[in-house]
Design brief:
Blueprint lengths: L1 H12 L15 E2 L2 H11 L1 H7 L1 H12 L6 E6 L6 E9 L4 H67 L5 H36 L7 E2 L13 H11 L1 H22 L5 E11 L11 E11 L8 H66 L5 H36 L5
Parallel strand pairs: 1-4
Antiparallel strand pairs: 2-3, 3-5, 5-6
Helix pairs in contact: 1-5, 2-5, 3-5, 4-5, 5-6, 5-8, 5-10, 7-9, 8-9, 9-10
Length: 417
């Protein structure tokens, strides 16, 4: 019976057993971590909203390329000329329009960097939710196993009490263990529903959609060498990419401010109408239609964008410092995440190869001794609690392993599987 219990724990740890109450109305759909990430990439609502900003950024490029409209005016006066029509057309001199378009395009690229950063963040959240669900399902399966073991132990205690081998106290104690196991199982089932809802929310799937995760927690994790990760992170880390793009935007903004120091030219052209000479006189310069025109230009005497340019240059220096700090911190964060992952792999392997089998052997020996009347109930309960704690720690170590992998992937800024 004990061996059957251990087999049940191993199977349900792989995620193939669905707890009653979660997805009882439907057959679970198979879902690997790669499929979950792909679903989130296509369906996550936060990503869909962020990607809609691309149209805004593209429209900003069109706005930057627009040319100024002319201004038309019509005048009527008692004085001569009595009527007039005038068109005022601003004319940009220098590369202002090209600089504006460049700024808008780089701001559009900054929007893409923000979208990419959100994609990486969602990828991390999906990983955590996916393996979190696998973890709570393993916990639920373990609690169901614990309940069966407590019921079996209660039956053994009842049989020994009826045979006069033990006091009723042991039966009562065994029944208490059954009640505690039932409560823990119900709590685990509710936590499983919460974890399933969180995953479905990220995938934009109906809340009650159930998933068969397979052997999610026991999937082998392979990571590239640390030097390769550091080289990849230098060009793909979300923070590095964003600061680099902010630098480009600020450089373009500085160039635009310098181009705007060249004043625009105002072109006026039109006609004056109905300007007769003095009454009774001929050839006195009167006319009915007369052309008029003019030029205007702002004189850059006091303001030539000195303050704005100084501010933009200062912002560039700030971004240079932030980029240097981010690169330095990046090496530390990637190295830290890498070594943490190595430690988690070692921990999970030790639990799997050594600690878990040893604790299970001790539990088997304690139960057989109690069945044979060579040990009391307290010895069996202590052995059971020990193996339950070890199984809990093993599940936690597997979850921590996948969480460490997700943290490393987020630090690097590109998929690692």
């Amino acid at each position: 019976m004990v061996k059957c219990r251990h087999l049940l724990f191993a199977i349900t740890l792989a995620g193939s057993v669905v707890t009653p109450g979660v997805g009882a109305q439907q057959t679970p759909r198979r879902l690997t971590i790669a499929e979950a990430l792909d679903l989130a990439e296509k369906q996550n609502l936060d990503l869909m909203a962020a990607r809609a900003r691309r149209a805004v950024a593209q429209a900003g490029v069109r706005v930057a390329g627009q040319r100024p409209n002319p201004t038309g005016s019509v005048s009527v006066s008692r004085d001569a000329p009595h009527e007039g029509v005038l068109i005022d057309q601003p004319a940009e001199i220098g590369p202002k329009r090209g600089r504006r378009i460049e700024v808008a395009r780089r701001e559009s690229a900054l929007t893409e960097a923000d979208i990419s950063a959100l994609e990486k963040q969602v990828r991390r959240l999906v990983r955590d939710a996916y393996f979190g669900l696998a973890h709570v399902r393993g916990t639920t399966a373990r609690q169901a196993d614990v309940l069966k073991l407590a019921q079996r132990l209660r039956d053994i205690a009842q049989a020994r009490f009826q045979a006069g081998d033990v006091a009723q106290l042991e039966v009562t104690q065994a029944e208490l263990e059954v009640a505690r196991a039932q409560a823990d199982l119900q709590l685990a089932q509710q936590e499983e529903k919460v974890a399933l809802s969180e995953l479905n929310s990220l995938l934009n799937e109906p809340g009650q959609t159930d998933w068969d995760l397979g052997d999610a927690l026991t999937v082998q994790i392979v990571t590239p060498p640390l030097p390769d990760l550091l080289a990849r992170a230098a060009s793909s880390n979300a923070e590095i990419v964003r600061i680099t793009q902010e630098q480009k935007v600020e450089q373009s903004n500085t160039a635009l401010l310098k181009a705007e120091r060249i004043p625009d030219l105002g072109l006026q052209f039109g006609v004056d109408l109905n300007n007769p000479g003095p009454p009774g006189q001929i050839n006195t310069g009167g006319y009915m239609v007369g052309a008029r025109g003019g030029l205007s230009m702002e004189l850059p005497i006091f303001s030539r964008n000195q303050g704005e340019i100084a501010e933009s240059l200062a912002s560039e220096r700030v971004l240079e410092g932030e980029l240097a700090a981010a690169r330095r911190n990046l090496d530390a964060s990637v190295s830290s995440a890498y070594y943490d992952l190595q430690a988690r792999q070692t921990q999970a392997q030790i639990y799997h190869d050594t600690i878990l089998p040893s604790s299970r052997r001790l539990e088997e020996m304690a139960e057989e001794s109690y069945r044979a009347g060579k040990a009391n109930l307290l010895v069996v309960l202590t052995a059971q609690h020990d193996v339950q704690q070890v199984e809990r720690d093993y599940l936690d170590s597997l979850l921590a392993l996948h969480s460490a992998f997700a943290q490393l992937e987020e630090a690097v800024g590109s998929p690692l599987d």
